[in-house]
Specification:
Elements: H1 2-23, E1 43-44, E2 47-48, H2 63-70, E3 77-81, E4 103-109, E5 112-117, E6 132-135, E7 138-139, E8 159-164, E9 178-183, E10 194-201, E11 205-215, E12 219-230, E13 239-253, E14 256-270, H3 277-282, E15 291-293, E16 303-306, E17 315-330, E18 334-350, E19 357-377, E20 380-403, E21 406-430, E22 435-454, E23 459-477, E24 480-491, H4 495-499, E25 512-525, E26 528-540, E27 543-550, E28 553-560, E29 563-576, H5 579-584, E30 587-602, E31 619-629, E32 633-642, E33 659-669, E34 674-681, E35 689-692, H6 698-701, E36 706-708, E37 713-721
Parallel strand pairs: 6-9
Antiparallel strand pairs: 1-2, 3-8, 4-5, 6-7, 8-9, 10-11, 10-37, 11-12, 12-13, 13-14, 14-17, 15-16, 17-18, 18-19, 19-20, 20-21, 21-22, 22-23, 23-24, 24-25, 25-26, 26-29, 27-28, 29-30, 30-31, 31-32, 32-33, 33-34, 34-37, 35-36
């Protein structure tokens, strides 16, 4: 009842706020606010504060073209340009999505995020599930269902498109979390020929980035490289990462363009392990202590079962080589896209004595094609889209005993094969000048095959599902949209779910399915930009991370729950303050706010009743007050407030304390070629929990589940453009 009351109260406050927005007249329009991602780009005279839009191409649209495409979606979306996270030390993909409502990103290890949208992937630690990731429209999420978010370097991003839930149908996604498409710079869109960035700060952090762009009449080329070195906030959390990304495009005709992409990554970081709640708050820099038993009698010996992260050198080392192509042809009334990708991944992951050293070599190949256009049925115009994706991955998965950081006996080996074929289609019917009806459907086939070679369990599962969608988009006026939709999502377990990331034997699991209803609005009026969605998902067989104490520490595994419910509010609001006086003086003062309400719970579960789901906090509020002196300097203060932390267990016996983190950002334009930035994170050195690994009942199990958040840190950098 309390949960229902909170939801109704939040709805009442939200609709009151929207009503106020419709009648408020605080300032004349500041030029077009984005309304997608709630970031305001203002225009003073002939100066574009946030950066002029460069020329786009068939394979790399301009930000404005991307926003126009997003406005045609009858559901929750987000849009983030690189300028909005490059004024701080953004190390991971999660750092780029801070101001996107509905997104919860926390840190389980340096450069390693769990990104959850609408409660997707609850409790996931590594190899995330529940969200489809693409780069320039080419899938990065593997055929096995897992995603390594560190395959994206924030310094190689131009902008991001966020498709929440089934709104990811644009790219064939039908998972609970949706899809994120990362669009990269090209030789035509980079904005400068050469760019250099040097930054560093607390915890021995140093990052160097350089990029080069070149173009002529028919071709262009872009390359960027990043090197990162950090000791990390916690003991035994050192990071060494090298990243290179490049693309080359050819304009084969005025209507035909092809582009090739190359990515290499060597990402190596040590793992400090999780702590008890008490230890995580009292000694946040500490590593996970050894697992011991005894003494069996007073003064007797203590047996160490697992010597801990340092003695066994817990770490996670990932090497990636990826090659892809995307080709686009724009005909008369239609557009054809096609491409392929190949990736090789090597994982060397040393963890507990129970899990051992996970050693994997994976090859994956995929193809995709999409055809879109516009037609009419009599006098009824409509837009259409059809696409197919197919990929296959083969993984040689080995598990060795961890003998003080060295490989001991080979304890398990299996050949893991995964296949996925996704077909999808969508029609957008124009029912009038203001109303669009969108219908769509997605079908997937997925195979998960684990063939044992040494001490493992053989298993194979095949999945297929149909997922329909229906939505309505209403254009209230040129700057305001209303929408509603209902959709079905389905998500098969990943091989990481079926094998606990390689630590356990193959365990059969079913598909997670859900029906979701959503309504919302986005737009801009009188300088105020907003984006708001309300949704409710009825989920069957949700894939949840449980856990139990094992002989050598905590063992995490995935199971299908019974019925669960995810519902919530996603609200973003940008409000310009004192706009008239600020504009006349060439200034801007904007209050940016994001509020996410997560009401996730079991629905009459035999074991957990109507308990809250663990892993994600109920309320999340993020705000930034930023002052810009145009083309000169800026100063911003920000806060991330979690009133009450998430539950650690599904029995709801242990809840993480809430926290408020304050930060400061400042920047200075020394010239058109040189700029500086300074960022202070966790200004008051607040101790808090950044990540929770979920389990069933923490009172009974008393497992180490909690990752301490980073303490106060100061970072700064210099950008050079030529």
């Amino acid at each position: 009842m309390k949960s229902l009351y909170n939801f109704r109260l939040s709805l009442s406050v939200l609709w009151l706020l929207l009503g106020c927005l419709c009648v408020t007249s605080l300032a004349p329009s500041l030029a077009k606010a984005q309304g997608l991602g709630q970031k305001t780009a203002i225009k003073l005279d002939n100066i574009m504060v946030e950066g002029d839009f460069e020329e786009g191409t068939e394979t790399s649209p301009t930000p404005e073209e991307a926003r126009e495409a997003l406005r045609k979606i009858a559901g929750g979306i987000g849009f983030v340009e690189a300028e909005y996270f490059l004024d701080e030390f953004a190390q991971s993909l999660g750092d780029t999505l801070v101001f996107t409502p509905g997104v919860f990103a926390d840190t389980s290890a340096q450069r390693e995020n769990r990104i959850s949208i609408r409660g997707s992937g609850l409790g996931q630690s590594f190899e995330r599930r529940g969200l489809t990731l693409l780069r320039d429209g080419v899938p990065i999420t593997r055929a096995s269902g897992s995603t390594e978010f560190q395959e994206i370097d924030p310094l190689s991003i131009r902008y991001l498109e966020v498709y929440k839930g089934a709104n990811g149908l644009r790219y064939g996604a039908a998972s609970l979390g949706g899809a994120v498409n990362v669009v990269t710079p090209t030789g035509r869109t980079a904005g400068q020929t050469w760019f250099g960035r040097i930054e560093g700060g607390s915890f021995g952090s140093l990052r160097v980035n350089s990029s080069y762009a070149e173009s002529d009449e028919d071709s262009d080329f872009y390359i960027t490289a990043t090197g990162l070195r950090s000791d990390g906030f916690r003991d035994h959390s050192d990071v060494k990462s090298g990243y290179l990304f490049s693309n080359a495009g050819w304009q084969l005709s005025p209507k035909l363009e092809t582009r090739f992409y190359l990515t290499t990554l060597s990402d190596n970081f040590e793992l400090a392990g999780a702590l008890s709640l008490e230890d995580a708050l009292a000694t946040p820099k500490a590593v996970s202590p050894p697992v011991t038993i005894g003494p069996f009698f007073p003064g007797g010996p203590v047996t160490v079962l697992d010597p801990g992260p340092i003695a066994d050198d817990w770490d996670r080392n990932l090497d990636v080589l990826r090659f892809a192509n995307r080709t686009v042809y724009s005909g008369s009334g239609y557009r054809l896209e096609a491409g392929f990708w190949y990736s090789y991944r090597n994982l060397d992951h040393a963890i507990t004595r129970f899990a051992g050293i996970i050693d994997q070599d994976e090859h994956e190949f995929g193809l995709f094609t999409q055809l879109s256009g516009d037609s009419s049925l009599g006098e009824l115009p409509f837009e259409w889209l059809f696409g197919v994706q197919a990929n296959k991955g083969s993984n040689d998965a080995r598990r060795w005993a961890n003998d003080f950081g060295q490989r001991g006996e080979l304890s398990a080996r299996s050949d893991q094969d995964a296949e996925q074929v996704v077909s999808y289609g969508q029609l957008g019917w124009k029912l009038g000048e203001r109303t669009t009806l969108l219908t769509g459907v997605q079908h997937f086939y997925a195979k998960r095959d684990n063939q044992a070679r040494v001490n493992d369990v053989t298993g194979r599962l095949d999945y297929q599902q149909w997922n329909p969608r229906l939505g309505v988009l209403y254009q209230l006026d040129p700057m305001v949209q209303l929408y509603a939709n209902i959709s079905r999502s389905a998500e098969p377990p990943s091989i990481a779910d079926l094998t606990s990331g390689g630590a356990l034997d193959f365990t059969p699991l079913g598909v997670q399915t859900a029906w979701t209803a959503e309504l919302g609005s986005r737009g801009e009026r009188n300088g105020i930009a907003w984006d708001v969605s309300l949704y409710r998902s009825w989920i069957d067989g949700e894939l949840l991370k449980f856990g139990a104490p094992g002989a050598f520490g905590f063992v995490s595994f995935t199971e299908n729950a019974n019925n669960t419910i995810h519902q919530g509010i996603e609200l973003g609001l940008d409000v310009p303050l004192f706009a008239d006086s600020m504009l006349s003086a060439g200034h801007e003062l904007v209050l940016r706010q994001v509020y996410t309400y997560n009401d996730f719970q079991f629905d009459n579960d035999p074991g957990f009743g109507d308990n809250r789901l663990a892993g994600v906090p109920e309320h999340l509020y993020i705000s930034e007050l930023r002052f810009d002196h145009v083309n000169a300097w800026y100063l911003a203060v920000n806060v991330r407030w979690v009133p009450d932390g998430p539950f650690a267990d599904f029995a709801n016996t242990v809840q993480v304390p809430g926290y408020a983190l304050f930060g400061v950002n400042a920047g200075l334009e020394l010239s058109s070629n040189v700029s500086l930035y300074l960022s202070i994170e966790n200004l008051f050195d607040k101790r808090y929990i950044s990540n929770v690994t979920t389990n069933a009942n923490q009172t009974e199990e008393q497992s180490r589940l909690f990752t301490p958040g980073q303490g106060a840190g100061v970072f700064g950098g210099i950008n050079l453009r030529f």
